Amino acid sequence: MEQNYIYAPALTSEFRCKVPLKETRQLFIVNGKVQGGKSPFSLRLKEGEVMKEMLQIISVRHKSYKEHLATQQDFHFGKGSSGKIIQCSHTFSPDRFRTTEKVTISLERDAVAEFYIMQNEHNNAEHSTSYEVNLGAGAFLKMVFLSLHGGVIRNDIFLDFNEKHAECDLAGLYLTDSKQLMDNNIYVNHLVPECNSNQLFKGILDDEGVARFYGRINVAPDAQKTEAYQANHNLLISDKAKAYTSPQLEIYAGDVKCSHGATIGRLNEDELFYMRTRGIPAAEARILQQKAFAYEVLEKISNTELRERMLSLVERRLRGEFSHCSTCIRNCC
Amino acid sequence: MNNDNIMLKISGLKVSIDDREILTGVNLEVRPGEVHAIMGPNGSGKSTLSAVLAGKENYKVTEGEILFEGEDLLKLSPEERSWAGVFLGFQYPIEIPGVTNVNFIKTAVNEHRKRKGLPELSAAQFLKLMRERMAYVEMDSSFTSRGVNVGFSGGEKKRNEIFHMAMLEPKLAILDETDSGLDVDALRVVAGGINRLKTPENATIVITHYQRLLDYIVPDYIHVIYKGRIIKSAGRELAQEIEQRGYDWLIN
Ligand SMILES: Nc1ncnc2c1ncn2[C@@H]1O[C@H](COP(=O)(O)OP(=O)(O)O)[C@@H](O)[C@H]1O
Ligand SMILES: [Mg+2]
Q: A142: closest CA among A3, A303, A24?
């Protein structure tokens, strides 16, 4: 594995994660600077290489640099290689941070990769990330976005299927309150036959929070036997929350299975009453319903410890606390 | 009769939905240890009465009152009624995808304990209690990890209602058509669970429009409700008569 950093035990304790996940290596990027290594960050897995530990990349915006920051991260998975990446982004203070990030992910033939993207920033932070993804033959990519908190969070994903039999599973959960904006734009491009793509994005929107979802599936004329699915579901908790959803299918091949669905709804009143008759107070019942709604996305996290931690972060978030782990006062995971 | 010992007292209850009067003047008294059956044709207001007792919104009480252990029940929220000891078994139990049955009932039990000033049950204590109470209705442990009522058959949903009741140990259980959609075996199991939960201190109102359930759960009183009011109250022998003659002779 070629990666251009070394673990930096000397890192100031301010940035250290107090409760690291098991079997996980951590890398810190502070204001775009890779700690103990060269910037921008890049990772290359050789042919057949299997990452034994997860790699957690924790990007932090710190008040020592308040200018607009443009950064990049590059991931290359060689033939048949596999690995799991956790990307966390945080702000350490409520300053007006603006971050523009580009992430490239390429998987060669039969590579398998999972990306868990955890976004947890203050209300003044604007963070826009553009993911450029290329998948080779038989490759499998899973990406799970957890946009927990942030002023403006924008994720653009441009994913191209370049060779047959590749598959991607894209999922996201976004939670807004106050005047936050979460914006997801997904372009899945089926250029070749016999690839599968699956998208599931769900949002819970409170206060005056706004969510935008734009999902475009393009199936080229030769891309026969494509299977492409997309779903976007939004739960409005308050009267002023808003969701805009725009699913787009452009299909130029005949023999394909494609579907898309989008909903914007509210909590189910019958469920609520049922729970209350069993003695579950209304507020608690609403949290249970929202957790249930979120679970469909969170259950895609294959690592149990990470999933449990994300579940508890989401629960705290739904209870209106800025999320952090129970054993640590830092606002990170 | 001793008035102090009345658990539930419904007097002159009139209820409207969207300006349509559904309950047109219901009177009912229930004492600890009693089992009451409420019968009546479809659409006569049985489910409406049970929903009003449980605190469902959008049901407007235009006249009358409901006292539970001497307190005004109508001013309590549904959860407060549950904590006070009122339980409603739904005619159509609600499915809650994503909330597991075990988490659901654990949350409910601990909320009840909180109101009684009791600490939460430990995981082991809870598991023991749950196993014991599931056995009351011969429920398989696989139902605990599934979403509440999701993919349950009609009979399984009704068993689950009685399982919830067994966990919460209400003072007053109102069971709305717990027998509907059950085959004979399931009916025997569900009725067995209900009978097992009976004590001299608690009371049960079973709502049904078949006499069948009353072969298993023997009521002290039977009330016939029609067009939103109780038109006949009698002892358990009334069930036989309704079985033979239907409701027409009572209505006319
Ligand atoms: N939510 C509702 N909105 C309007 N009408 C209702 C509603 N629920 C019940 N009703 C009406 O009230 C009457 C009594 O219904 P219900 O209480 O369900 O009767 P039962 O349980 O005895 O079959 C019926 O005429 C029914 O159509
Ligand atoms: Mg009914």
A: A303
**What integer pLDDT is reported at residue A16 of this predicted model?**
62
From the CB of residue A264, how many other CB atoms can be counted at a distance below 10 Å?
A: 17
Q: Mutate one of B82, B90, B106, B169 to test the A interface: name it (highest A CB count within 10 A).
A: B82
Query: In this structure, is residue A331 part of a structural domain?
Result: no
Which CATH number do you get for residue B162?
Answer: 3.40.50.300
Q: Is A273 helix (H, G, I), strand (E, B) or coil?
A: helix
Distance (Å) from CA B91 to ligand 1 centroid: 12
Nearest residue (by CA) to ligand 1, atom 26, is B43
The label of the residue with tokens 């009979």 reads B155
User: What is the per-residue pLDDT across B122-147, written as a single tens digit (0 to 9) for each?
Assistant: 999 999 999 999 999 999 988 988 99
- Is B149 near ligand 1, meaning CB less than 6 Å away? no
CA distances from A81 to A44, A144, B9 (A): 10, 20, 72
- A43 within domain boundaries: yes
Q: What range does the domain containing B246 cover? A: 3-251
Domain range for A49 is 9-326
**Sign of the CA dihedral with A35 first, then A38, A42, and A47 last:** negative
8 Å CB contact between B250 and B235: no
Strand order in the sheet with A24-30: A33-34, A24-30, A54-61, A82-91, A112-120, A140-149, A167-176, A196-205, A227-236, A257-265
Atom of ligand 1 nearest to the CA of B48: 17
How many Å apart are CA A100 and CA B80, to the nearest integer?
A: 50
Residue of A nearest to B147 (CA): A292
d(CA B245, CA B239) in angstroms, rounded, equals: 10
Interval B73-121: pLDDT, tens: 999 999 999 999 999 999 999 999 889 999 999 999 999 999 999 999 9
Domains held by chain A: number: 1
Half-sphere exposure of B141 (CA within 13 A, CB side): 6
> What's the total number of domains in chain B?
1
CA B53 vs CA A75, A179, B9, B93: distances in Å: 61, 40, 11, 16
Q: Is A262:A229 a contact under the CB 8 Å cutoff? A: no
Question: What distance in Å separates the CA atoms of residue A332 and residue A181, rounded to the nearest whole number?
Answer: 20
Residue with tokens 């070629």: A2
* Cβ atoms A214, A232 nearer than 8 A: no
Residue A145 lies in a domain: yes
Residue B55 C-beta-side C-alpha neighbours within 13 Å: 27
Q: Which of B200, B181, B199 is nearest to B190 (CA)?
A: B181
Q: What ipTM does this complex have? A: 0.96
